[in-house]
C-alpha cells in the first residue's frame, strides 16, 4: 500500500536534495541566532585550541632538542696508566675517521684544575694524595651523523685497551626525550577529555534547541516523518558548531603563534640560534577541524537520538 | 477489500482511568465519509489515535487500508502514518515557516523532487482557496485560513484516508461550514474521510453517516440525548 511514488526522486537525488536543504536551513538558523551560536562555537574553539596548542608547544620543544643533537660529544675516559703519547696516537686515528669533526684532549692535570676552579671543592681535593680524575678525549661528531653510527662508535671505542669508559654525553637529552614522550601522551589524554567536553557542549546546546522545537517535532512525527528525517537538521547544526568551532580554534592558535614568534626569535637569538616558532602543521590543523566536525556531529547525534525517543505525540 | 478502516471488538484502557473504548466494532468503507460524534471523553480522540497508531488497542484488531495495525512495528509507524492525512483542532502548523513550507512538509518527508513539490503545493493551496497566500506566515492568517492550510497539508500527498479531530472546534460557524465543505469536496474525489466533531448542528444537514460514541461504546441509533443536543445546536 505504500507503493513507490512515481514523483519520488531517485535515491541519490533524494539524498542530496534532503541534505542540501537541511545544510542550508540549519546554516540559516545559525545565522539568525548568531550571537548565541557563536558563543557555543567560541567555547568549542577554546576547547579544541587547548590540545592543539599544547601539541604545538611539544613539537617546538622537540624540534629544538633535535637541533641540540648536533652538539653531542663522545667522551673517552682513559685509564690512569695511559700516557699522553698513547692518547695522542688514539686522537690521530680518530681524526682520520669519517664522521668525526674534532677531537680534543684534556689531561688529568687539566681536569683537576678545571674541576677545582668550577666545582668549589678545591680545598677538599687538596687533601687527596693523588689526582682522582682521568684524562679525557672528547669527540664531536660531524653535524647530521645518524645516531646509530655514533652509538656504534661509542661501543667500538669503549673496547680500546686505553679507554676505561666511553660515554655519549646525552643523558640529559634522553631525559628530555622521555619527558617529551610523556608530554605527548598527556596532550593525547587532554585532547581526549576535551573532545568529550566538546560532545557535551554540543549536546547541551542541541538539547536546548530540541526543547525549543518540541512542538515542531511532535507535528513532524504526527504527519509521518521518520526519526532520520527529524534528526538530520540537528546533526547539521552540530556539524556547523564543530566547523565554526574549528575555525575559531585555528584563529586562536594562529594568533598565539603570531604573538609568540618575535619573543621566540629574541630568545633564540640570545642562544645564537635562528630558531623560528613552528605553527600548527597542516595535518594537525586538519585533525583539529575534523575532530571539531566529527565531535559536533556525534554530540548532536547522541542528544537527538536520546530526546527523539522521549518526544512522542500524545 | 472494500474497507479503509475496520475495528473488530476494539477496547482501549488508560491506566488508572479505565476503558475509554469498549468492544467497538465499526467499518469505514473506501471512499466513504462519516462523522464521529459524542461527548467529551466519549472516546472520539482515542479512536482516531488508534487509527493513526498514536495508541495501541488494549484488545481487538484494527485494520487500516488492509493492514493489521498490530503488525506495524514502531520503526514502521512513520511510513504507516504517511498514508493518512490528519487535520487537527489546533491546526498544528509550524509558525516559523511560510504557508508554502508548511504544506510542503509531507512531500519533503517523502523525498518528492523539488519541482514536483512546488507544483503539488500550489495545487493543494488552490484546492483550499489559499493560492495567493503561499509566502504568508501562518500567524498572519485567520483561524479558518490556518485550518485550510492544515487541510492542504493533510491532502497534499494524496492520502487515501483523511482523519480530522474537531477540525472546526476553534472556528466560527462560517469558517466551520467552509471547512466541512472542503472535506465534502475531497470525499467527492474519492478520499475516505472520518471527522470527529462536536458540531452537530453543522453536520445534521449533511448526507453522511454519523458514528456516535457514548462512554466508549458505539450506539447504533442516535440517543435521545443526542437528538436533544442536535435540536439545541440547530
Distance between the termini of chain B: 37 Å
Mean pLDDT of chain A: 85
Order of adjacent strands in the largest pleated sheet of chain B: 6-7-8-3-9-10
Outline type of chain B: globular
Order of helices and strands of chain A: HHEHEHHEHEHHHH
Secondary-structure-derived class of chain A = alpha+beta
> Helices and strands of chain B, in N-to-C order?
EEEHEEHEHHHEHEHEEH
What's the alpha carbon Rg of chain B, rounded to whole Å? Answer: 18 Å
Oligomer: heterodimer
Return residue spans of chain A where pLDDT drops below 50 for at least 5 consecutive residues.
none
Unreliable residue runs of chain B: 221-234
Q: Largest interface, counted with CB-CB under 8 A?
A: A-B, 27 and 32 residues
Task: Tell me about the largest β-sheet of chain A.
Answer: 4 strands, antiparallel
Fraction of residues in β-strands of chain B: 25-35%
| Fraction in beta strands of chain A | 5-15%
Helical residue percent band of chain A = over 70%
What does this structure look like?
The complex is a heterodimer of chains A (314) and B (234). Chain A has 2 domains: 14-67 and 174-310, no CATH class; 73-169, 2-Layer Sandwich (Alpha-Beta Plaits). Chain A has 10 helices and 4 strands; from the N terminus they run ααβαβααβαβαααα. Chain A has helices at residues 11-32, 34-68, 84-96, 108-119, 122-127, 147-158, 171-212, 214-222, 227-270, 282-310; strands spanning 74-78, 100-106, 136-141, 163-168. In chain A, strands 2-3-1-4 form a 4-stranded antiparallel sheet. The two termini of chain A are 26 Å apart. By secondary structure, chain B is of the alpha/beta class. Chain B has 2 domains: 3-83 and 161-233, Rossmann fold (3-Layer(aba) Sandwich); 95-158, no CATH class. In chain B, 35% of the residues lie in helices and 26% in strands. Chain B contains 8 helices and 10 strands. Chain B has helices at residues 44-51, 77-81, 99-109, 114-127, 143-155, 173-188, 200-203, 224-233, and strands at residues 3-14, 18-29, 33-37, 59-64, 67-68, 84-87, 161-165, 192-196, 209-214, 217-219. In chain B, the strands form 2 sheets. A 6-stranded mixed sheet of chain B has the order 6-7-8-3-9-10, sandwiched between helices. Chain B has a 4-stranded antiparallel sheet with strand order 2-1-4-5, with helices on one face. In chain B, a hairpin with a 3-residue loop joins strand 1 and strand 2. In chain B, helix 3 (99-109) runs parallel beside helix 5 (143-155) and helix 5 (143-155) packs parallel to helix 6. The radius of gyration of chain B is 18 Å and the shape is globular. The A-B interface holds A 1-2, 5, 7-9, 13-14, 17-18, 21, 215-216, 218-227, 229, 312-314 and B 52, 54, 65-67, 75, 78-84, 86, 88, 92-94, 96, 105-106, 108-114, 116, 120, 153-154.
Amino acid at each position: 500500500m505504500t507503493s513507490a511514488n512515481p514523483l519520488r526522486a531517485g535515491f541519490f537525488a533524494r539524498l542530496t536534495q534532503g541534505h542540501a536543504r537541511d545544510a542550508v536551513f540549519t546554516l540559516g538558523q545559525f545565522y539568525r541566532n548568531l550571537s548565541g551560536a557563536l558563543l557555543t562555537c567560541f567555547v568549542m574553539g577554546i576547547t579544541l585550541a587547548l590540545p592543539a596548542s599544547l601539541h604545538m608547544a611539544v613539537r617546538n620543544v622537540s624540534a629544538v632538542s633535535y637541533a641540540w643533537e648536533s652538539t653531542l660529544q663522545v667522551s673517552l675516559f682513559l685509564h690512569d696508566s695511559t700516557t699522553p703519547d698513547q692518547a695522542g696516537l688514539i686522537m690521530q686515528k680518530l681524526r682520520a675517521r669519517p664522521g668525526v669533526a674534532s677531537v680534543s684532549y684534556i689531561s688529568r692535570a687539566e681536569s683537576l684544575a678545571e674541576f677545582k676552579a668550577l666545582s668549589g671543592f678545591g680545598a677538599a681535593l687538596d687533601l687527596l694524595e693523588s689526582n682522582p680524575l682521568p684524562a679525557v678525549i672528547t669527540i664531536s661528531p660531524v653535524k647530521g651523523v645518524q645516531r646509530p653510527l655514533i652509538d656504534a662508535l661509542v661501543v667500538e671505542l669503549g673496547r680500546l685497551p686505553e679507554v676505561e669508559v666511553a660515554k655519549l654525553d646525552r643523558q640529559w637529552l634522553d631525559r628530555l626525550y622521555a619527558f617529551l614522550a610523556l608530554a605527548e601522551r598527556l596532550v593525547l589524554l587532554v585532547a581526549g577529555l576535551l573532545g568529550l567536553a566538546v560532545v557535551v557542549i554540543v549536546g547541551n546546546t542541541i538539547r536546548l534547541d530540541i526543547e525549543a522545537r518540541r512542538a515542531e517535532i511532535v507535528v513532524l512525527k504526527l504527519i509521518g516523518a521518520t526519526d532520520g528525517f527529524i534528526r538530520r537538521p540537528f546533526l547539521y547544526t552540530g556539524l556547523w558548531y564543530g566547523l565554526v568551532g574549528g575555525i575559531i580554534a585555528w584563529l586562536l592558535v594562529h594568533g598565539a603563534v603570531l604573538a609568540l614568534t618575535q619573543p621566540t626569535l629574541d630568545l633564540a637569538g640570545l642562544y645564537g640560534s635562528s630558531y623560528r616558532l613552528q605553527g600548527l602543521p597542516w595535518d594537525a590543523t586538519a585533525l583539529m577541524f575534523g575532530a571539531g566536525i566529527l565531535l559536533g556531529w556525534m554530540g548532536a547525534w547522541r542528544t537527538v537520538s536520546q530526546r527523539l525517543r522521549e518526544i512522542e505525540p500524545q | 477489500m472494500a474497507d479503509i478502516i475496520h475495528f473488530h471488538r476494539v477496547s482501549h484502557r488508560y491506566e488508572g482511568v479505565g476503558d475509554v473504548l469498549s468492544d467497538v466494532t465499526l467499518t469505514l468503507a473506501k471512499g466513504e465519509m462519516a462523522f464521529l460524534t459524542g461527548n467529551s471523553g466519549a472516546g472520539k480522540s482515542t479512536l482516531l489515535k488508534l487509527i493513526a497508531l498514536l495508541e495501541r488497542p488494549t484488545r481487538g484488531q484494527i485494520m487500516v487500508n488492509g493492514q493489521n495495525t498490530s503488525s506495524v512495528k514502531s520503526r514502521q509507524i512513520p511510513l504507516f502514518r504517511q498514508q493518512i492525512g490528519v487535520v487537527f483542532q489546533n491546526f498544528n502548523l509550524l509558525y516559523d515557516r511560510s504557508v508554502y513550507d508548511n504544506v510542503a512538509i509531507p512531500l519533503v518527508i517523502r523525498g518528492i523532487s523539488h519541482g514536483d513539490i512546488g507544483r503539488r503545493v500550489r495545487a493543494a493551496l488552490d484546492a483550499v482557496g489559499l493560492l495567493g497566500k503561499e509566502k504568508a506566515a501562518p500567524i498572519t492568517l485567520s483561524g479558518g485560513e490556518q485550518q485550510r492550510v492544515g487541510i492542504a497539508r493533510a491532502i497534499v500527498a494524496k492520502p487515501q484516508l483523511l482523519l480530522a479531530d474537531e477540525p472546526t472546534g476553534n472556528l466560527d460557524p462560517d469558517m466551520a461550514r467552509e471547512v466541512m465543505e472542503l472535506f465534502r469536496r475531497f470525499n467527492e474525489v474519492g478520499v475516505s474521510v472520518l471527522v470527529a466533531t462536536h458540531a452537530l448542528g453543522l453536520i445534521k444537514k449533511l448526507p453522511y453517516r454519523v458514528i456516535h460514541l457514548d462512554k466508549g461504546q458505539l450506539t447504533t441509533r442516535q440517543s435521545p440525548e443526542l437528538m436533544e443536543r442536535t435540536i439545541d445546536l440547530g
